[in-house]
Amino acid sequence: MEVRSEGGGGCVQVKCDNKVSPAQVIPRTRLQVWFIRVCSSILIWTCLVQLMAVGELWEQPRRVSNLTNVLIREPAPRLVVARNYISNGFLKVSCNGGLNQMRAAICDMVAVARLLNLTLVVPELDKTSFWADPSNFDDIFDVKHFIDSLRDEVRIVRRLPKRFNRKYGYQPLQMPPVSWSNEEYYLQKVLPLFSKYKVMHFNRTDTRLANNGISLNLQKLRCRVNFQALKFTPEIEALGYKLVQILQSKGPFVALHLRYEMDMLAFSGCTHGCTQEEAEELKRLRYAFPWWREKEIVSEEKRLQGLCPLTPEEATLVLQALGFDRDMQIYIASGEIYGSQRRLAALRTAFPRFVKKEMLLEPEELQQFQNHSSQMAALDFMVSVASNVFIPTYDGNMARLVEGHRRYLGFKKTIKLDRRKLIELVDLHNNGTLDWDEFSFSVRVAHGKRMGQPTHRLVMVDKPKEEDYFYSNPQECLCGGTSCDDLLVSGNISTIQ
Predict the structure, then answer these.
(1) Is residue 178 part of a domain?
(2) pLDDT tens, 144-185?
(3) Is residue 489 predicted with pLDDT exceeding 50?
(4) Quick check: 79 pLDDT over 60?
(5) How high is the pLDDT of residue 38?
(6) Are residue 225 and residue 256 in the same domain, yes or no?
(7) Is residue 37 part of a domain?
(8) Could you tell me the residue range of the domain that residue 418 belongs to?
(9) How confident is the model at residue 16 (pLDDT cuts 50, 70, 90)?
(10) The organism sits in which domain of life (predicted)?
(11) Number of folded domains in the chain?
(12) Span 194-217, mean pLDDT?
């Protein structure tokens, strides 16, 4: 190798025996620099992306919360031990009616399946009623919880085994059980049918189990299904709890189940306060639905008998007479009020803090529940159960099931209105016969023992439609033994034999 200097520039020329020139050394150095720059750029961009993600999470804490919920899950509750029994067949049921009628029917059908040692198929919900709600069971209730929480009582499956499907030529026996039936009916009349038909389909399930005369273990099972197994979906529960929290943050509130909706008025024929055009519209609707059997109805006669829901104007007078002042929050638990803003004017004037779910939530929060009346009713159900006072203006299924739920939670105040007495008092006040003080005093006296206190269920032998509904007062599940004698207020007992 030869090394020499050229001139005074300090440049050194290297000459190697293997002919390596300076031009061959320089490209390697540039390649290294280029590689470092590329790596640095990638590292910087990665850091920027991470910082942007952290910034977005910082601005939206809800996402962090959701991420935490995903990463840190509560341990799943331990499954109860499954009951081991030989199933006598499969029971398929199609519930009919609104949310709360179907809810009670589901509880009854679980009890029937337990009694007959059957396998229950997850119930089908009504999609053909006036409300035309397309919701399935798992759109409203937590189906996994329903199945798992009852494993020690009855086997529940999501669907029939394929061999029993109609497309394979199998035809199950379809029938509606006899209404208000006791255990003897199911054991002697229904159970033998399973020896021939391995699958039975009850195509109507409303009030198919008696209120009274049922063994204690089945009565308690009905309660267990109602109060524990039938949980709403997480989406419904989250929004329902939000509604409750909004209301509670502003003080105590009354849940007024104002059953003044089109279907109720059409079905009952109650048109007091409606215009002539509205009365005709309701009559046409009643004739359009064949299962509403009573067609020609005299509205005023039914009203005087206490068989109509209170109008919004009548409900306003009653709330004032009961002592609620204008600052009380009044939550309207109902669908669309017939007559809309015109019929709510008196209530809004008397109680400016009256609200509905549509007024408390953003439209996008309710969007997923729109056109699903049972899911909307589930939200009202949750708020009504949680309210400081619950007042239904008609004793329909929701009123009765909420009343029973509130009894189960410690006899929370539920004012069960005596509509027949109230209509008499309201008319006397409106025509000037009773002044305000007399009217208010009379209303309070009439409801002194109708506040949800412990009481025996009203029993009417051979008149099950007229006796107290099991789910409004499931006394077997509320007190020790089979009675509430230790909790009863003196004189607050109502039984008719």
Answers:
(1) yes
(2) 999 999 999 999 999 999 888 877 778 889 999 999 999 999
(3) no
(4) yes
(5) 62
(6) no
(7) no
(8) 234-477
(9) very low
(10) Eukaryota
(11) 2
(12) 95
Q: Give yes or no: residues 249 and 184 share one domain.
A: no
261 and 225 in one domain?
no
Give the residue-averaged pLDDT of 231-256. Answer: 97
- Residue-averaged pLDDT of the chain: 86
Q: How far is CA 70 from CA 66, 73, 160, 238, 254, in A?
A: 6, 6, 33, 16, 36
> Within this chain, do residues 137 and 198 fall inside the same structural domain, yes or no?
yes
Confidence of residue 29 (pLDDT cuts 50, 70, 90): low
pLDDT in tens, 439-471: 999 999 999 999 999 999 999 988 998 999 999
Residues 223 and 246 reside in one and the same domain: no
Contact present, 399 and 413 (Cβ < 8 Å): no
User: With helix as H, strand as E and coil as C, how does the chain read?
Assistant: CEEEEECCCCEEEEECCCCCCHHHHHHHHHHHHHHHHHHHHHHHHHHHHHHHHHHHHHHCHHHHHHHHHHHCCCCCCCCCCCCCCCCCCEEEEECCCCHHHHHHHHHHHHHHHHHHCCEEECCECCCCCCCCCCCCHHHHECHHHHHHHCCCCCEEECCCCHHHCHHHCCCCEEECCCCCCCHHHHHHHHHHHHHCCCEEEECCCCCCCCCCCCCHHHHHHHHHHHHHHCCECHHHHHHHHHHHHHHHCCCCEEEEECCCEHHHHHHHCCCCCCCHHHHHHHHHHHHHCCCCCCCCCCHHHHHHCCCCCCCHHHHHHHHHHCCCCCCCEEEECCCCECCHHHHHHHHHHHCCCEECHHHHCCHHHHHHHCCCHHHHHHHHHHHHHHCCEEEECCCCHHHHHHHHHHHHCCCCCECCCCHHHHHHHHHHHHCCCCCHHHHHHHHHHHCCCCCCCCCCCCCCCCCCCCCCCHHHCCHHHCCCCCCCCCCCCCCCCCCCC
In the prediction, which pLDDT does 176 show? 96
On the question of pLDDT at 491 being above 60, the answer is no
Task: With a cut of 80, say whether residue 19 has pLDDT above it.
Answer: no
468 touches 207 (CB < 8 A)? no
Considering the domain architecture, whether residues 305 and 437 belong to the same structural domain is answered as yes
Shared domain check, 443 and 328: yes
Residue 44 falls within a domain, yes or no?
no
**What confidence category does residue 41 fall into, taking pLDDT thresholds of 50, 70 and 90?**
low
Is the residue at 8 inside a domain?
Answer: no
